[in-house]
Specification:
Radius of gyration: 23 Å
Number of helices: 18
Number of strands: 13
Helix content: 40-55%
Length: about 450
Amino acid sequence: MAGAPRAAAARGIARVIQGGSLNDLLPAILAGHREPADRALIQELVYGSLRFAPRIEFLLTELLDRPVRKREPRVHALLMVGLYQLLYMRTADHAAVSETVEAARLMKKPWAAGLVNAVLRRVQRERDALEAKADAHPVGRSAHPAWMLEQFQQDWPDDWESIVEANNSRAPMTLRVNAQRGSRDAYLGKLADAGIAADAHSLAVDGVTLETPTDVSKLPGFVTGEVSVQDAAAQLVADVVHPEAGQRIVDACAAPGGKTGHLLERQPDLATLVALDRDPDRLDRVAENLARLELSATLKAADAARLDEWWQSDVAEQPEPFDVVLLDAPCSGTGVIRRHPDIKLLRRPKDIASLESQQARLLDMLWHTLKPGGRLVYTTCSVLRAENERQVANFIQRHDAAVSLPISSDWGRPAGFGRQVLPGEAGMDGFFYAVILKDF
């Protein structure tokens, strides 16, 4: 049935509207749809509708006499799907309207079929005027919630427009070549032989960017660990950590394990690599990724800030400190919105203060596990200064032994005691990096 993918997409979007995470929901959204074309359409509708949700929501306030979002979230989500098709997809207008109306019936909302039909046909008639009205409003024009847009403008007055543009774009698919299995040039040759167009990334030395996203099952050597999927900005963390033979390293908040695997690929002769995550299910993903790469680490399901759960013990011996602590901290995710567009709907202004407090707690507690002369590498996928440079500056002010180390690189830009990559720069996600030496 032609309306089935639209109905599935609407059900998934409604779950996000009610607070669910798209990453967690996507498998269920796709369940029951085996045809590749249907699955691709569902993903396009879900990601696209969420990517432009603030603009679409703005237009719906103009189109509806009575909002339906709270009392009928599925119908509201279906209207979002319909508007996304008419405004952003190449689907013929008549097909977009008729199949979205059919989706209302498949969702057992026959009363909504007339509403969906009326709203979408009005969009067809008044498209130019509606788009002009959206363009005249900051939220409608940027497709970002007002608070987020204002924060970008405050933190990045010269760059906020490029951040917004990058967030509203599709992210490239970037691979990380396993240097233990072969060179990047050799892998580019394998991709060419498989008919997959790709280029070496200009900044990430192990990175390869595909011209068109491809199912991992079609990637040469993926199953055997020759390559992984990882954004180039995340790959730069291994350069910042610069793992050396014999070192003891802890990767706090490690799931899904991309950085853990990259560190081991870069330096297989580490003395110890401990990968932590408080969520046992997410830690299972770390184990799966390492197994595919035929690498091993010490995995512990624990809150990294609760040292008694993973580092300290009941015995009298002093626990052995680490040479490097890598903290990829929980954050707003404002640097990866293009990959996780549901952030636009799920994140709230009040979340930032809570995240700042959590980041500070993790920094302070993990500092105890670092040996004198060791390095703490702090990174986030945020572009907010409160989570990044101000967080690091406050930490250094709290700890006399904390000394900022410069990051020598030709990527990103200086940001207080660290460096910031903004979304879209060299095709990368937004990331912040800082290195702090424990001087005594």
